[in-house]
Specification:
It contains 14 helices and 17 strands. With 406 residues, it is α/β, with parallel strands linked by helices. It folds into two domains: 5-30 and 298-405, Aspartate Aminotransferase, domain 1 (Alpha-Beta Complex), CATH 3.90.1150; 41-295, Type I PLP-dependent aspartate aminotransferase-like (Major domain) (Aspartate Aminotransferase, domain 2, 3-Layer(aba) Sandwich). The strands form five sheets. It has a seven-stranded mixed β-sheet, sandwiched between helices. Strands 13-14-17-16 form a four-stranded antiparallel β-sheet, with helices on one face. The chain is globular and about 75 Å long. The structure holds 4'-deoxy-4'-aminopyridoxal-5'-phosphate. 4'-deoxy-4'-aminopyridoxal-5'-phosphate binds at residues 30, 93-95, 123, 125-126, 171, 175, 200, 202-203, 223, 364.
Length: 406
């Protein structure tokens, strides 16, 4: 499919909605993305034609559903460059993937006085699970601070790593600052020191071509709803040799090989980590979303979105009294800012009344707010269905908002 913005927008039914009688300008894509018609239709297709519980049925429908789910696993593996389907574990989303890694890595590898390096720009879901592990194991979470532009310094990482360091947990793209972190170099430094690396891909997966083998991360997580797929489904990629060493996260059906009161053995990868009936509808529909993105081309998407971000940065920051939060040299699709003399929440409320959906607050990154000493930001985040006209509308609405506050 060629990159034709009108054709692309036409595939997202919600984009023609009105709010308060005004056209919807949806700039909250870092929180969740809108869904194309093919994704919406796929949900109905599964329920209308082959809904049946997977993996344990001899009957036709169960086999069709199982094949569709396992085909979807191939699509996910291929999308992120994983070597095999055994590396792909389906979860409820990035948060569950992160908790799974933190818990199981904690059980297997972390002992008293060990250190876990977590960047200062992490979403709470890539900080709190590590704090819980640290508390359980008597280990320590070490902060990898960013500079005022919102960039992480690799030399600083070298200094933070000690013989006690077990893992570095860092986001690929910051959901608040937009920073794209140098994940390949981070993995190189960590591995040179025998330290594992987890990359939170929640904000990179819709914007950047992902190749987990090139990145050489040990774990990579993402959520389906951030990449035009349904809610309640996400994935975890892990290296085989590590996943094999980790204990199960939850017990139940599917994750076992055999069960008795005397001895239970566990299933092979990836099923060892997929207890219970999986969200097979979500999994099948997620694959549809990824194929939709592939049909447009992630490189084309990235180029277009970069253009949008540059345009938005230049337009929005031309307004006096608007100050950017996050000015890294390498950014993707997120523009956070504060308005002098106005609480972000109030700015967001005014923009909302003009039909513009942005997010305000701490974006689940309170340490980022503490770094800058601010209560929150206004965040506009872009998807490839957004347009320069929409950015102009944001600009004009913001000019009006600023006038109200001055
Ligand atoms: N990490 C980052 C960087 C995020 O932006 C988000 C969602 N805002 C998450 C993790 C958590 O994702 P989810 O809520 O889908 O589990």
């Amino acid at each position: 499919m060629a990159f034709n913005i009108e054709k692309i927008r036409a595939q997202f039914p919600i984009l023609t909605e009105q709010v308060y009688g005004k056209p919807l300008v949806y700039l909250d894509n870092a929180a969740t993305t809108q869904k194309p018609q093919v994704v919406i239709d796929k949900i109905a297709e599964v329920y209308c034609h082959y809904n049946a519980n997977v993996h344990r049925g001899v009957h036709h429908l169960s086999n069709v559903a199982t094949t569709a789910m396992e085909d979807a696993r191939k699509v996910v593996a291929n999308f992120i460059g994983a070597p095999s389907v055994e590396n792909i574990i389906f979860t409820r989303g990035a948060t569950e993937s992160l908790n799974l890694v933190a818990y199981t890595v904690g059980e297997r590898f972390i002992t008293e006085n060990d250190e876990i390096i977590v960047s200062e720009m992490e979403h709470h879901s890539n900080l709190v699970p590590w704090q819980i592990v640290a508390q359980r194991k008597g280990a320590k979470v070490v902060k990898w601070a960013f500079n005022d532009a919102g960039e992480l310094d690799l030399n600083q990482l070298e200094k933070l790593i000690t013989p006690h360091t077990k893992i570095v947990a860092v986001t690929h793209v910051s959901n608040t600052l937009g920073t794209v972190n140098p994940v390949e170099q981070i993995a190189q430094i960590a591995h040179r020191n025998n330290v594992m690396v987890l990359i939170d891909g929640s904000q990179s997966i819709p914007h950047i071509k992902i190749d987990v083998q090139k990145m050489d991360c040990d774990f990579f997580v993402f959520s389906g709803h951030k990449i035009y797929g349904p809610t309640g489904i996400g994935a975890l990629y892990g290296k085989t040799q590590l996943l094999e060493q980790l204990p199960p996260y939850q017990g139940g059906g599917e994750m076992i090989e055999s069960v008795s009161f005397d001895k239970t053995t566990y299933n092979v990868l990836p099923y060892k980590f997929e207890a219970g009936t999986p969200n097979y509808v979500g999994i099948i529909v997620l694959a549809e979303a990824l194929q939709f993105v592939q049909s447009i081309g992630i490189e084309q998407i990235a180029t277009y979105e970069q253009e949008l971000l540059n345009y938005a940065t230049q337009r929005i920051l031309s307004i006096d009294s608007v100050k950017p939060i996050g000015t890294a040299a390498n950014k993707a699709s997120v523009l956070s800012f504060v308005v002098n003399g106005a609480h972000p929440y109030d700015v967001g409320m005014i923009l909302d009344k003009m039909g513009i959906a942005v997010r305000t607050g701490t974006h689940c990154t309170e340490p980022v707010m503490q770094h800058y000493g601010i209560p929150g930001t206004v965040r506009a985040s872009f998807a490839f269905y957004n347009t320069k006209q929409e950015i102009d509308m944001l600009h004009d609405a913001l000019v009006r908002a600023v006038k109200m506050f001055s």
